């Protein structure tokens, strides 16, 4: 089985990540520098750069374990639920649930034969998508995959029943009905409005038996995955050891995986690096300068590089305090020297990063243009003028501005597990904003609480994290939706506007790619004007991988296929 979904990724400063459907693609190589990789001074890898050490299956051992790290213990495994968007949990779910599509090196989706015989648009007016399911595909409770699963997922995610605390996945609200097709393994999905990114819906597919009531949807996936349908199932959850172990499912109807098991171990970034060098895990991110420096000459290591959809940004919370004022948010944008923060992130790496000018496209994607304008340029005097206009009194160098007797003070929340690089970036940001009279407190919180108790709940003024694998443009929509009550979807900064929602609605319902790109770029320019998020840079995928591990590594835009990953003989 191929896993094609990685979900939205929220990552502290340059590490923590939320998930979004996406994929990456392999290219030849066994760890040596490729074009755009460490060893090639550039702005980053090419759009299809990947390195997974591709090997024929007959050259791999039958058995063995792949040991990897995750950044925190997973509490919510429903990756469609508002508290379940953390990237590591989403990756585990994608391993054990049906990923209907896999992604090639260009990020193009293709049906996975183990689940789908076909999936295609069978009518355009209205738009109808017909899925023909593999009749061998079954859930771990014995039930066959059917239209009931699609129907339950649609009802949970279309937004009509607010008791389903959905993370706001786009496309489901555009569906008018889901019904059984002519055959028992056929599913007919009829859209009220066209949806160009229809392949991202129902991927992964969740079981109706664990999804068809709000209680099951919201609470049935806490601390566990109740039902699976994959080459893999969860063998154990060990909260004491902080490990989740996936094992082969003997009831799997497809190709048998080469590995016996995949172990996920919760470790902070520094501990993960030490664990890798101590041969306790089999790969680790090497994008941080100190990490790259420690692993690049390790004789048991292959450095593998890919061009993942992966961006680092700063989220501004417009739902509380001074940042409710647009002028203050715009002042923060102007007071941040994005180039300096990017230099810190790429310090001592063999390629240089560049500030990112778009929220929807990466620089190596067709459609990218820099829409940041005046809000992406460092302009300290401009920031001061905006704060003057907003009524914040300048009290001189080294002193925070005040208004009605209150200081202009903001909280920048970071994980206690942050790396030294992240701490350096936080301090640099603190110093930048101080020049404009904005006092920043750096508040460290427990790593396991970072998302669940702070980011998701809006208990911050500023946070920095990553969004990853947003290969479908419409995936970004939940980040800009207007919150409804306690459900903020994925708009953790609670900043939106009717114009922005209208632009994104039009963009996701047009099937003309050129027109869609135009609308998304118009929306992007508005995101900058709203002071929603400050884009910093695209984060290259640089991994230190244990030599001998094949068909796995820096996949770039392609999907990871854990049935083919394994150890060379």
TrEMBL record:
State where composition is biased (Low complexity).
Answer: 35-46
Any idea where the Solute-binding protein family domain is? 111-476
Signal peptide position in this chain?
1-19
Keywords in alphabetical order, please.
Signal
Return the annotated region ranges for Disordered. 26-54
Keyword Cell cycle carried by entry = no
In terms of Pfam families, this protein maps to:
SBP_bac_5 (PF00496)
Supply the name of the protein.
ABC transporter family substrate-binding protein
Per the UniProt entry, what species is this protein from, by scientific name? Sphaerisporangium rhizosphaerae
């Amino acid at each position: 089985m191929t896993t094609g979904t990685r979900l939205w990724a929220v990552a502290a400063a340059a590490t923590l990540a939320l998930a979004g459907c996406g994929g990456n693609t392999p290219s030849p190589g066994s760890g040596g520098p490729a074009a755009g990789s460490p060893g090639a001074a550039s702005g980053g890898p090419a759009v299809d750069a990947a390195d997974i050490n591709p090997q024929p299956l007959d050259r791999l051992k039958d058995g063995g374990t792949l040991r990897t790290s995750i950044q925190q213990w997973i509490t919510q495994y429903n990756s469609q639920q508002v508290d379940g968007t953390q990237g590591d949990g989403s990756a585990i779910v994608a391993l054990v649930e049906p990923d209907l599509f896999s992604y090639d090196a260009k990020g193009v989706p293709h049906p996975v034969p183990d689940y789908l015989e076909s999936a295609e648009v069978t009518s355009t007016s209205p738009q109808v998508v017909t899925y023909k399911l593999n009749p061998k595909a079954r859930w771990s409770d014995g039930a066959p995959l059917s239209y009931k699963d699609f129907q339950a997922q649609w009802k949970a995610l279309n937004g009509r029943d607010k008791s389903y605390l959905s993370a706001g996945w786009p496309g489901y609200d555009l569906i008018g009905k889901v019904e059984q097709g002519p055959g028992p393994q056929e599913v007919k999905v009829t859209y009220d409005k066209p949806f160009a990114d229809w392949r991202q819906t129902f991927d992964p597919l969740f079981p109706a038996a664990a999804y068809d009531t709000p209680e099951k949807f919201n609470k049935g996936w806490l601390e566990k995955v109740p039902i699976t349908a994959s080459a893999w199932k969860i063998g154990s959850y060990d909260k004491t050891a902080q490990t989740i172990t996936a094992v082969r499912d003997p009831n799997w109807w497809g190709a048998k995986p080469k590995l016996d098991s995949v172990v996920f171990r919760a470790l902070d970034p520094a501990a993960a690096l030490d664990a890798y060098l101590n041969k306790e895990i089999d790969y680790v991110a090497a994008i941080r300068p100190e990490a790259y420096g420690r692993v690049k000459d390790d004789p048991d290591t292959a450095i593998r590089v890919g061009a993942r959809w992966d961006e680092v940004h700063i989220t501004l919370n417009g739902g509380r305090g001074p940042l409710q004022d647009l002028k203050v948010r715009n002042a923060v944008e102007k007071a941040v020297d994005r180039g300096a923060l990017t230099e810190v992130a790429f310090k001592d790496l063999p390629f240089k990063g560049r500030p990112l000018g778009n929220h929807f496209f990466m620089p190596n994607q067709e459609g990218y243009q820099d829409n940041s304008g005046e809000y992406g340029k460092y302009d300290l005097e401009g920031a001061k003028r905006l704060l003057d206009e907003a009524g914040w009194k300048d009290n001189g160098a080294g002193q925070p501005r005040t208004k009605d007797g209150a200081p202009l003070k903001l909280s920048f929340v970071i994980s206690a597990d942050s790396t030294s690089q992240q701490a350096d970036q936080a301090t640099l940001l603190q110093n930048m904003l101080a020049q404009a009279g904005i006092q920043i407190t750096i508040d460290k919180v427990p790593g396991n609480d970072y998302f669940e108790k702070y980011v998701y709940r809006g208990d911050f003024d500023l946070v920095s994290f990553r969004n990853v694998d947003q290969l479908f443009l419409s995936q970004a929509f939940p980040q800009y939706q207007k919150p409804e009550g306690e459900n903020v979807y994925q708009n953790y900064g609670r900043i939106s506007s009717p114009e922005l929602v209208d632009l994104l609605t039009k963009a996701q319902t047009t099937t003309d790619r050129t027109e869609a790109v135009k609308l998304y770029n118009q929306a992007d320019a508005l995101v900058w004007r709203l002071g929603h998020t400050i884009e910093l840079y695209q984060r290259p995928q640089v991994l230190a991988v244990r030599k001998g591990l094949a068909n796995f590594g820096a996949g770039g835009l392609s999907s990871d296929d854990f049935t083919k990953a394994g150890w060379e003989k």
